[in-house]
Amino acid sequence: MRLLIVEDSAPDAELTVRHLESEGIDCAWTRVATEEDFREALRTTPDLIICDCTLPGFDGMAAFSIAASQAPDVPFVFVSGTLGDERARQALQGGAAACVAKGDRRRLAQAVRSSLQPDPGRRRRATDRPKPLADADAGTGAAQHLLARRAVLDDTLPEHDTAAMVSLTSGAPQIAAALLAIEAGPTRERFEKLLTMANLELESSVGASEALGRLAAGLHALLFTDNLALIRCARQLPSGAATHIVFVSSAGDALESEALRAGANDWVPSDARGEHFWAHLTIARRIADLAASLQRALHDNCMLSTVDELTGAGRRHYFEEQFPREVERAGRLGRPLGIVMSDLDHFKRVNDRHGHQVGDQVLREFVARINGSLRVGRDWIARLGGEEFAIVLPDTAASKACAVAERLRERVRSELFVLPARPTSISASFGVCALDQVAGDCNELAYRMVRAADAALYESKRRGRNRITAGRIGEERPRASNE
């Protein structure tokens, strides 16, 4: 077996190998301790990776992410005393083969043997990770966050079909970041490198005024600074602007006590090395993880308020807030964008004949069918009111948007809806407005696209229903009331 060990301690690596050999597992092994060496070693395609969690200048979770990208079929085993239960659970869900505590090496041989067995489930977890678009920016694929939080939604609304919710786009939650505000140039450069390697999301500022502006503008779980005045000012900001302040100064500096009195929570040496420093950094990372978890929870609560309880589609105010952002993003990148307005045909008859409970059932089934034909994590649907819905198709040109609308129309019509009296065929009408490239001034473009799609929907109704009509901006006509 070709074994790759990610470990800064050579004795620990040798102990791991001796233990495996004592259990009858022969291996040729290589030890690395830096990201550069790790990436190079992955080219040899090892049979197994055993990794510590915290290394000076490198992070086990970062190594796991790199391995998942470059060598997704190679089993990855954590052997660490600092991984933590929550991060271990996330690692296993993300595709890690096993997590073994350093103090429990008796389980190591069993974990290694199990990891080397074929595991299609692990391979799927590794290879099915969504790949970001090459030209994606921060707003692209924001629905992927909702996919990652699907378990939260399922637990929160267990009585509802949440399939529709995974396709709602939403700005990714504001993850707690570390703010670096160190005035000494060499120290700042050293910390920028180390904190980035430690897998902390990092922002950097020059000067106390810029740092205070960043703190006031958003959540920062950590603040690293060598400025005592900045510490005092930061503590005057609203609670939570800087959760944990770390004063950075020369080892043994008498300013340590003064910094703590000013409001710092901790002190680290500016030379940033040794076990003492990494112990402090481990504490800081745990605080960042906690702050990020709290921020995600707040985001989830906000997200649930945007979901229509009945259908699982987005609410109207959600659409009115998010669609202009889709237009702005498409304009910024020069990408296509489509919107489809849809309305169930003769829905009032369903409510009149069978009651509103049956009508609600039809609406839920309609949204489920629509979602089943959309790109998960990209397209999304919102309920505008009653039986009218808007379907947003990012990165979709005009011809493709019409094809999607036709597919949706057929999907609704092709299968009978089960009503109390008898299975009944129900149709829907669609209006499409799509641009092959959104460019130039996007002011009021979202409003004009909605009006054009709405006018096209009305034309589909006027021409007999159960059809699609493509609309163009500038050809909007007043919307008449539906039957």
The overall pLDDT average reads: 78
Low-pLDDT runs: 121-175, 478-483
The N- to C-terminal Cα distance equals 72 Å
Rough outline: globular
Radius of gyration: 28 Å
Work out the helicity level. Answer: 40-55%
Number of strands: 19
Largest sheet: 5 strands, parallel
- Assigned CATH superfamily of the largest domain: Reverse transcriptase/Diguanylate cyclase domain
Number of domains: 3
Textual characterization of the structure:
This protein has 483 residues and is an alpha/beta fold. The protein has 3 domains: 2-127, Response regulator (Rossmann fold, 3-Layer(aba) Sandwich); 146-151 and 308-470, Reverse transcriptase/Diguanylate cyclase domain (Alpha-Beta Plaits), CATH 3.30.70; 177-297, Rossmann fold (3-Layer(aba) Sandwich), CATH 3.40.50. It contains 18 helices and 19 strands. The protein is globular, with a radius of gyration of 28 Å. The termini are far apart.
In short:
With 483 residues, this protein is an alpha/beta fold. The chain is built from 18 helices and 19 strands. Mean pLDDT is 78; it is low at 121-175 and 478-483.
